[in-house]
Write a sequence for this structure.
């Protein structure tokens, strides 16, 4: 695209031909309000608040749709533009259940911002009653159409990013609303509970099911021992959610959790390392069965740590369930180990434990309620709160996060390695697994500079890598000598869908595939701070790899507490106890 | 006075225009249509030759010729008449469009309420096939063309060309963003021309008689003739053909309108003219003539008419864009308030005029851009508003700007 001269608000400037007026204005630092526009999504052009004046046009034009042409004369600041935008905001508000102080998105709402910006004090078009709140509940996702402004960002998210497409515009004219097939609840359709629709919604029409209330209650109950785990991606999102400058301080997060009253502050990163040990061995054994025993083994093996992804495959590709690793997600491994091993070590009564997990993810709320997730003899994880919910608790408790000291996690399930930290980014599980599996099978470090498996990093939708195994292998793994291990990584369910279709069609052959439901992996999860866009995802990703690089231990099998866990309790990877506590099975679900 | 071309008793033979066109270059067909100055007969009045030229210039192996026979505007029935009587002329015009732009697939999007016209169109198609005027290698010219008849989805907005295309693709009938325009990326993302039934029917006449002849048919700088479906309080409702640019008065005389309070030209989204305006002309410059002309006599309360129209738009808006979805509803409420005496003064009304203007300039498609026309016209011409406010509502005291 080459640069052309345009005139915006009376000033000559250069813009790229063919880019939209909106993009050009962004680059030039000229503010244009938007509601239906989201950089992750296709252009809908339905809210119309981005309208601008272009010379030669009788009507205003939407800046998010209209391409720049040479010598275009644009006004974003005329009275006509300002008055029209203001009127549009009034129209939206007239049909909006605006109770901002009691709203999920109070203080972080694109509509509220516009109402403030256009100085709406009195709505000239409030000719009838406002819509009544009508909340539809599912395991993790709440929908309230009385807050919905029909921007269709959720619809486009579900379809374009996730290829799930369970929410649609239904009906016409003033009856139009976002709904599902037959207007069933999200829990009764093939919704993955990924929460991406929440992250892309400009208003409070979509939000996670709140679990802070029972968590507060548990914290206040002297009878309970409340333990908490925090997922790798939470620590790179929490400050954003608190509206603080970002320095990604894991130690402050641990301190804040302690101030909230959690009795043990522990780390999902610990169980991420545990996942790698189990899953790495599972992969090696599947390869052994295939190559040595010549058994029919489901390959490629596919990761199973992303519960949105699991629900997706259970609905849409359930002929491939045997390809899934049987490993539980790190959250659920943590839950099962906490109510067994940790209780042994600490002398806790597991019946008194309340196990809380802080996740960048809404699907984890669904996952913890899966009926099979009680191998400890109790519900393995009791409550799941998102990064956003934790931020709210910290605010509500009046904790001055910025000035907290840096503290450590508690013992037995608090140690982690860089390999666990990178679970938070797409490609991270793959990289962590390769670091460990390669070393188990060869006795050598993986031959990537600084342990950094760069081909599986970054935001490309589907990434591939191959690792040539050397001729010299460790004892027991000689059969892998000279084998080229082929792996692939996909993030965002639309990419996952594409990759699986290619695998099924025989167009691509891999040994191991990592899939994360959310774009960018957990760092872009449905429970992460809003907004989440490419810029934010990139920043969180940089933080994750920086933390990995800064840690003394960067391979899961080097985690001393993991070594202790195997020595004292699990005995061996894929052993009897592991099978019972750390592995699971999957359920076929309806396609729609 | 009437000037019958499309509805003439003595019509040139069906197919003669196509045969003549096949002996011209596609570009010459386009230029002839362009030089005729004909503007699309579906309402928006875009020059047909310009549209065809753009589609002709778009490079693609597949292009589509779509006939918009959705005729959803209340009070319009001229396309129905054309199909009933001259369906072969329509197919001929479509084939010529295909030849002109280099497309061989024609689709007729037929109003859902007109299923009985499907056999009529099928018969016409078969005739043309039998005569070698449709199908492969028409008359040895190397040009292939055939048509397909598809029933509409039954919504007024599906008559909007991009919404029509979405509907043909099996999606919700929602207007698309433009650009891209259908001439570049239309049905199945291929270059597509969408034209009204009457537009296609006129093309064979233009090619047979020449663009100059066509230009001379109109009054002043208007070109050609135009069909009008006249209904309402008239002696002789029906379809009339007049030169473009004729005064409204002529049409009203033909249809036998005696007691005239108001005339709506161009359907619900057109202009509502008081009796004093009957000397205005039916032309794109003055009263843009869609298909329908509705006459209201003095017994009718125009605000009731307004409420009906607003109710129509509230229901027919596809609902996707803010100004149309929300705006029509508020205008309907305003009409109800006028009826109930709750909207008393100019100050009370001011925000609704602002709303009407915002809808016109910020809606996504023609529906929302024109649905407030009747509100503005009827309130301006048929509603008395006092200068002084009696209701004392905050909004009247300039609660806002
Ligand atoms: C709401 C709406 C309804 C329309 N309905 C029709 C229709 O029923 N028939 C029609 O020919 N054009 C209709 N149009 C106009 C079409 O969008 C389009 O301009 C026309 O089909 C182009 O053909 P023409 O250039 O031959 O007029 C409608 C436009 C709008 C905005
Ligand atoms: S969605 Fe936004 S504008 Fe609406 S009530 Fe919530 S905070 Fe207020
Ligand atoms: S949670 Fe995910 S799958 Fe469910 S509706 Fe939202 S985007 Fe779609
Ligand atoms: S739920 Fe949110 S994202 Fe979806 S259409 Fe409504 S306001 Fe937009
Ligand atoms: S103007 Fe009305 S009909 Fe047209 S796109 Fe907008 S809501 Fe739909
Ligand atoms: S942001 Fe451009 S129309 Fe909504």
């Amino acid at each position: 695209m080459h640069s052309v001269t345009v005139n915006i608000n009376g000033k000559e400037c250069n813009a790229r031909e063919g880019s939209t007026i909106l993009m050009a204005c962004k680059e030039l630092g000229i503010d244009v309000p938007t509601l239906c526009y989201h950089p992750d999504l296709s252009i809908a052009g339905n809210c119309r608040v981005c309208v601008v004046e272009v010379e030669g046009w009788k009507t205003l034009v939407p800046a998010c749709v209209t391409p720049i042409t040479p010598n275009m004369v644009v006004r974003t600041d005329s009275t006509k533009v300002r008055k029209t935008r203001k009127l549009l905001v009034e129209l939206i508000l007239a049909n909006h259940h605006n109770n901002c102080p009691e709203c999920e998105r109070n203080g972080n709402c694109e509509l509220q911002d516009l109402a403030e910006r256009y100085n709406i004090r009195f709505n000239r078009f409030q000719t009838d009653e406002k819509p009544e709140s009508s909340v539809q509940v599912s395991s993790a996702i709440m929908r309230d159409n009385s807050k919905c402004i029909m921007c269709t960002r959720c619809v486009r998210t579900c379809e374009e990013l996730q290829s799930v497409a369970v929410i649609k515009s239904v009906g016409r004219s003033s009856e139009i609303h976002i709904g599902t097939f037959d207007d069933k609840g999200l829990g009764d359709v093939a919704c993955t509970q990924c929460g991406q629709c929440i992250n892309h919604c400009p208003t409070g029409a979509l939000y996670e099911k709140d679990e802070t209330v029972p968590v507060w209650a548990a914290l206040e109950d002297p009878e309970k021992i409340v333990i908490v785990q925090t997922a790798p991606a939470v620590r790179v999102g929490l400050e954003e959610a608190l509206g603080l400058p970002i320095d990604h301080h894991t130690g402050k997060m641990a301190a804040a959790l302690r101030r909230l009253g959690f009795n043990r502050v522990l780390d999902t990163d610990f169980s991420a390392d545990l996942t790698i040990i189990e899953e790495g061995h599972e992969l090696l054994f599947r390869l052994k069965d295939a190559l040595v025993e010549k058994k029919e083994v489901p390959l490629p093996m596919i990761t199973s740590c992303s519960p949105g992804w699991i629900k997706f495959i259970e609905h849409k590709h359930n002929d491939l369930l045997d390809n899934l690793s049987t490993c539980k997600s790190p959250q659920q491994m943590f839950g099962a180990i906490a109510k067994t091993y940790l209780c042994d070590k600490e002398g806790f009564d597991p019946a008194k434990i309340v196990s809380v997990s802080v996740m960048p993810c809404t699907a984890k709320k669904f996952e913890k309620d899966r009926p099979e997730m009680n191998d400890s003899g109790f519900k393995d994880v009791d409550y799941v709160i998102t990064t956003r919910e934790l931020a709210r608790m910290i605010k509500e408790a009046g904790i001055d996060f910025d000035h907290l000291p840096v503290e450590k996690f508690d013992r037995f399930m608090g140690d982690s390695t860089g390999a666990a930290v990178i679970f938070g980014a797409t490609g991270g599980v793959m990289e962590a697994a390769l670091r460990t599996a390669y070393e188990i099978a060869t006795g050598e470090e993986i031959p990537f500079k600084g342990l950094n498996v760069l081909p599986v990093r970054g935001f490309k939708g589907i990434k591939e890598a191959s690792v040539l195994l050397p001729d010299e292998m460790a004892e027991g793994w000689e059969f892998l000598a000279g084998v080229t291990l082929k792996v692939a990584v996909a993030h965002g369910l639309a990419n996952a869908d594409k990759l699986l279709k290619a695998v099924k069609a025989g167009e691509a052959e891999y040994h191991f595939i990592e899939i994360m439901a959310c774009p960018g992996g957990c760092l872009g999860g449905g429970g992460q701070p809003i907004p989440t866009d490419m810029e934010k995802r990139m920043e969180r990703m940089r933080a994750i790899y920086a933390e990995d690089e800064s840690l003394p231990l960067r391979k899961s099998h080097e985690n001393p507490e993991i070594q202790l866990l195997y020595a004292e309790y699990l005995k061996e990877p894929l052993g009897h106890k592991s099978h019972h506590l750390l592995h699971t099975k999957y359920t076929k679900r309806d396609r729609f | 006075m009437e000037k019958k071309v499309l509805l003439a008793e003595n019509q040139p033979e069906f197919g003669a225009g196509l045969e003549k066109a096949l002996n011209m270059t596609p570009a010459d067909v386009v230029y002839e249509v362009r030089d005729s100055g004909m503007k699309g007969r579906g309402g928006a009045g875009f020059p047909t030759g310009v549209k065809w030229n753009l589609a002709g210039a778009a490079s693609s192996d597949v292009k589509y010729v779509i006939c918009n026979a959705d005729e959803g505007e209340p009070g319009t029935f001229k396309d129905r008449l054309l199909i009933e009587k001259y369906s072969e002329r329509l197919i001929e015009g479509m084939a010529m469009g295909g030849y002109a732009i280099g497309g061989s697939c024609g689709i007729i999007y037929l109003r859902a309420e007109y299923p009985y016209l499907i056999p009529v169109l099928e018969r016409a198609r078969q005739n043309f096939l039998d005569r070698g005027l449709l199908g492969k290698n028409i008359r040895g010219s190397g040009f292939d063309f055939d048509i397909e008849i598809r029933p509409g989805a039954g919504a007024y907005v599906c008559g909007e060309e991009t919404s029509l295309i979405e509907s043909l693709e099996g999606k919700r009938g929602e207007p698309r963003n433009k650009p891209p325009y259908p001439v570049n990326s239309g049905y199945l993302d291929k270059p597509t021309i969408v034209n009204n039934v009457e537009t296609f029917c006129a093309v064979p006449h233009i090619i047979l008689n020449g663009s100059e002849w066509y230009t001379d048919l109109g009054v002043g700088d208007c070109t050609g003739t135009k069909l009008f479906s006249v209904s309402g309080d008239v002696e002789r409702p029906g379809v009339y053909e007049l030169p473009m640019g004729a005064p409204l008065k002529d049409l009203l005389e033909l249809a036998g309108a005696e007691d005239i309070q108001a005339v709506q030209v161009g359907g619900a989204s057109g202009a509502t003219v008081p009796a004093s305006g009957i000397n205005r002309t039916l032309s794109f410059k003055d009263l843009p003539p869609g298909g329908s002309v509705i006459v209201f006599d003095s017994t009718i309360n125009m605000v009731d008419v307004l409420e009906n129209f607003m109710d129509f738009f509230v229901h027919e808006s596809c609902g996707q864009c803010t100004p149309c979805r929300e705006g029509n509803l508020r205008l309907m409420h305003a009409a109800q308030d006028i009826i109930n005496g709750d909207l008393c003064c100019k100050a009370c009304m001011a925000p609704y005029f602002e709303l009407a203007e915002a809808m016109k300039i910020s809606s996504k498609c023609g529906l929302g851009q024109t649905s407030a026309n009747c509100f503005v016209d009827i309130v301006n011409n048929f509603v008395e508003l006092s200068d002084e406010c009696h209701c004392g509502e905050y909004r009247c005291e300039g609660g806002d700007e």
Summary: The domain at 302-396 of chain B is CATH 1.20.1440.230 (de novo design (two linked rop proteins)). Chain B touches chain A at residues 155, 157, 172, 174, 177-179, 314-323, 325-330, 333-334, 337, 351, 354-355, 358, 360-364, 369, 394-395, 399-401 (CB under 8 Å). The beta strands of chain B are 64-69, 105-110, 146-151, 192-196, 225-232, 238-243, 262-265, 271-274, 292-296. DSSP finds 14 helices and nine strands in chain B.
